[in-house]
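Data availability (excerpt). The following record was deposited with the supplementary files.
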Amino acid sequence: MFTQQTKMISVNDLKKMMNRKDKPLLILDARDVTSYYKGHIPGAISLFDGEIIPQAQNLDKNMNVVMYGPGQARPSKDPMDRLAGDAVDRLMKMGFKNVTALDGGFEAWANAGNQVDSSTPESIKPVNMLTYDQLSQFLGIT
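Predicted structure:
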């Protein structure tokens, strides 16, 4: 769920941030893992990566964090589709100051003709993947 304090970032502004090398950028994909493997923004990390949440405690709270979800044209009642907004809110509550959500989500990125990376579970290092229930508990959603 996106709150009024959730800042949005355009696809073009994200591309500019990705080209800058002077400030760290963390891009988090809040879609299900299968969607992440099929295609994601270059450099993005799946929010379901079980190592991200514990590591978030130790990250620079001033770094730029961009969260994205599927980016449906119409609002969805599926809780999985609301993970990006819930995660933005949670990171802000953890003290992150520069957290934004990608306007239009992955759909906007891909439809603009931008590069999309794909992977397979075997092509990345093994991680402890979070279940939806574990992620929901962390985000404080039910």
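Summary of structural features: Residues 7-135 form a domain with the Oxidized Rhodanese; domain 1 fold (CATH 3.40.250.10).
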